[in-house]
């Protein structure tokens, strides 16, 4: 297992009092340090060739044109002078995580800011400048070409409390990319109905009622999300790992615990290992700075003694 992050992600300044703040990632990295779980710095930004697999040339040009600027990159997407650089590196770290997974690492984490899953093919929105997970998934698909599993696709399991509308938009007409999204409904961005299935039945939306707890999430994972992933049979699995379904999150109304996230990660890990599918976890939302670190540590440990023994030293 490898955990990637970078100090540049702390330089993304969303302004005073904004919930998507640098303290979120600071808390996660401090919790990893306290738990004896090492992380390494990611190597660089995403390239245009990588970004253009998920975004239009106009959107990539728009984002690059904002380098050094402050203001808004899109609806509800505040940026400061180093935010675009951070966004390019966030996508780059997620691409690197896929490279490492495809080189044989069974599990890689990309702990990044800004988050990505609301960014569509054509625009930034909802705190998301570039769609890190979609850029990396389509990069992974590119990497599969010419290999023995060329026929297999990539899947994203999105358990952020908000619907992964951007990933859905980017994957919509691709038979080789599957999105399974668990999300609170109704809630921002007010998409993600069961009827939204993609051009090839490759989108599986699982809306959940406000107040869903650990048991409800684990049941939805077992009964609906994992069977959907089995039907698709991906060669690579990425997780849009948001932690805003945690109880008392200021932006949502779910009732999960850190331990519940750990169980969910452990179940996904056992599913993937049984099928020889590498997993890349990508940080999305989660706005309880006091508890975000516990959630990530619970997922990294995930009840898997092999992981704990390997990293605890
Ligand atoms: Zn969210």
Care to describe what's here?
The chain is α/β, with parallel strands linked by helices and 313 residues long. It has a single domain (2-294, 300-312), classed as Arginase, Chain A, CATH 3.40.800. It is built from 10 helices and 12 strands. An 8-stranded parallel sheet has the order 2-1-6-12-11-8-9-10, with helices on both faces. Helix 1 crosses helix 9, helix 4 runs parallel beside helix 5 and helix 7 (214-232) packs parallel to helix 8. It is globular, with a radius of gyration of 17 Å. The model is unreliable at 304-313 (pLDDT under 50). Bound molecules: zinc ion (ZN). Zinc ion (ZN) binds at residues 160-162, 242, 244, 284-285. Zinc ion binds at residues 160-162, 242, 244, 284-285.
Poorly predicted regions: 304-313
Number of helices: 10
Strand content range: 15-25%
- Please state the structural category: alpha/beta
* Overall pLDDT metric: 95
What is the CATH superfamily?
Histone deacetylase domain
Count of discrete structural domains: 1
Q: CA-to-CA gap between the ends?
A: 14 Å
- Each distinct ligand: zinc ion
Question: What Rg, in angstroms, do the CA atoms define?
Answer: 17 Å
CATH topology: Arginase, Chain A
Determine and state the CATH class. Answer: Alpha Beta
What helical percentage do the residues reach?
25-40%
Order the strands across the largest sheet as they lie in space. 2-1-6-12-11-8-9-10
Instruction: Give me the CATH architecture, please.
Output: 3-Layer(aba) Sandwich
Count every beta strand, where a strand is a DSSP E run of 2 or more residues. Answer: 12
Order of helices and strands: EHEHHEEEHEEHEHEEHEHEHH
- Largest sheet, if any? 8 strands, parallel
- Tell me, briefly, the overall form: globular
């Amino acid at each position: 297992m490898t955990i990637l992050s970078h100090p540049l992600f702390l330089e993304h300044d969303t302004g005073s009092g904004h919930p998507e703040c640098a303290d979120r990632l600071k808390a996660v990295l401090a919790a990893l340090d306290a738990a004896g779980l090492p992380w390494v710095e990611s190597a660089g930004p995403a390239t245009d060739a990588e970004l253009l697999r998920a975004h239009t040339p106009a959107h990539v040009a728009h984002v690059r044109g904002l380098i050094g600027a402050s203001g808004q990159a899109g609806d509800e997407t505040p940026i400061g002078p180093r935010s675009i650089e951070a966004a390019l590196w966030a996508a780059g770290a997620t691409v690197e995580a896929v490279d490492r997974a495809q080189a044989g690492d069974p599990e890689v984490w990309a702990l990044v800011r800004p988050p990505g899953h609301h960014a569509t093919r054509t625009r930034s929105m909802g705190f998301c400048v570039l769609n890190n997970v979609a850029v990396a998934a389509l990069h992974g698909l590119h990497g599969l070409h010419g290999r023995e599993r060329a026929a297999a696709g990539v899947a994203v399991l999105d358990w952020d409390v908000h619907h992964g509308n951007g990933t859905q938009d980017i994957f919509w007409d691709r038979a080789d990319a599957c999105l399974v999204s668990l999300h609170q409904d109704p809630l921002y961005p007010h998409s993600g109905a069961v009827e939204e299935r993609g051009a090839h039945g490759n989108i599986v939306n699982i809306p959940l009622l406000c107040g869903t707890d650990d048991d409800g999430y684990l049941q939805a994972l077992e009964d609906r999300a994992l069977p959907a992933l089995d039907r698709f049979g991906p060669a690579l699995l990425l997780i849009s790992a948001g932690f805003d379904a945690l109880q008392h999150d200021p932006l949502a109304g779910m009732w999960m615990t850190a331990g519940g996230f750990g169980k969910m990660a452990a179940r996904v890990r056992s599913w993937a290992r049984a099928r020889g599918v590498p997993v890349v976890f990508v940080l999305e939302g989660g706005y309880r700075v006091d508890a975000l670190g516990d959630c990530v540590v619970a997922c990294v440990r995930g009840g898997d003694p092999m992981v704990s023994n390997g990293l605890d030293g």
